[in-house]
Amino acid sequence: MTEAYDYDLFVIGAGSGGVRASRIASGHGAKVAIAEEYRVGGTCVIRGCVPKKLLVYGSHFAEELQDAAHYGWTVEGMSFDWNTLRDTVLRDVDRLNAAYTQTLESNRVEHVLERATITGPNSVRLAGGREITAKVILVAVGAWPVKPEFPGVEHCITSNEVFHLPELPRRIVIQGAGYIALEFAGIFNALGCEVTVVNRSDQILRGYDESLRDRLLQITMARGIVYRFNCPIQSVEKQANGSLKVSIGKQDPIEADAVLIATGRKPKTEGLGLESAGITLGAKGEIPVDEYNRTACPSIYAVGDVTDRVQLTPVAIREGHAFADTVFGNTPRTVDYTCIPSAVFSQPPLAGVGLTEGQARNAYGNVKVYTSDFRPMKNVFAGRMERGLYKLVVDANTDRVLGVHLIGPEAPEILQAAAIAVKAGLTKADFDATVALHPSMAEELVLMR
Fold it and tell me: Which long-range contacts (CB under 8 A, 24 or more apart) does 120-123 make?
């Protein structure tokens, strides 16, 4: 590698994409450093999907303990302590932060816990004033929660702060109806909080299959989550007793103990200094890149949520790996963004891969839709009326399965295997030819007629 610069690669942002890119580049022989202004691990590990999933697990025990009596268990003296769950989750975040740091060290990647800004095509400045040069710069700073502007927004929290609540709110208002909003709505509802979801439109989970969205809405309303559609928050006023008065337009104000804003995330590019390298941001603040993750400046690349392509951790990891192989491994390659599975860890969870029914009809016209609307065995035995819904979307002309969409217990775990079949282009006949695994919920995928 060249000796004209301090490093062959300097990475800004030690999240999933940045860590993977730096590790692989170092393995290819590059001299690599990575800067992170907060903690190693990024959004997913520190303040996102991992701690969120742990809260989901914790909240599931409310349902499991309720159902235990139907299975012969007597559980006396049940109680829940938010501080115990919160602190256990935060300890695991500490463990993961240490593990990611160790990964960098074991792969000979120098890590600097300072904010870094770009000062030119091949230079960065650390917050402490140190100037660094690099042959290649990779930006992997991710995205940040968006807060709308209204009076009293300073009294609201986002998904960044929700993991640090000093106590469990008795009443919580959640603005937004995307996956983050509905996941936390399910968590707090299961833990016994009064949950109100307010949204500017009349839809939840835009982009997911309509049938699953409708089913989730029905189930969560039956579980006690209250929805207020077409009425975003207009103001939040802190009362003398510490509670919050949430005004939502024509409807009556809502009294709450906490307000969580979950209206989306935007690339965290503000103040990054990209203009010094001739890089113009996109309309949402994203960094435009080509298929090889290169920006308008030939020496600067970007991966992950900061590019606002597909905001998913596994995608950022693949982009980081592809970048390192392309630039330092002499193996140019790109990422395939088709048939990416995704899940919402709501309660119950839903998951999907490929085209929704609406998307398939628009793209192919002639499609067949197969569904299985069933009551999971576990729910039958426990006396729960909630029903699962599985759906296959099929090209009527070729019999190829275009999409699989599931809602019900363990839907994300089941979908991962089904996503392989969709990615491979298997047909409905291939599904039908597969012997069912009985008794299981997953067998419904091969029994639809």
Answer: 120/276, 120/277, 121/277, 121/278, 121/297, 121/298, 121/299, 121/300, 122/5, 122/299
Task: List strands edge to edge, sheet with 235-238.
Answer: 235-238, 244-248, 251-256
pLDDT value, residue 3: 67
Q: Is the pLDDT of residue 2 over 60?
A: no
Q: How far is CA 398 from the centre of its chain?
A: 33
From residue 188, how far is each of 92, 193, 324 by CA, in Å? Answer: 20, 5, 41
Report pLDDT digits (tens) over 404-424: 999 999 999 999 999 999 999
Q: Which residues are annotated as catalytic?
A: 438
Cβ proximity of 368 and 394 under 8 Å: yes
Strand pairing of 388-395 and 367-374? antiparallel
Burial readout 285-316 (b: 16 or more C-beta within 10 A, e: otherwise):
bbbebeeebbbebebbbbbbbbbbbbbbbebb
Helix 49-67 vs helix 82-106: crossing angle, to nearest 10? 140
Mean pLDDT of the chain: 96
341 vs 324: CA distance, rounded Å:
24
Spatial CB neighbours of 90, under 8 Å, sequence gap ≥ 6: 51, 163, 164
Q: Is the pLDDT of residue 282 over 90?
A: yes
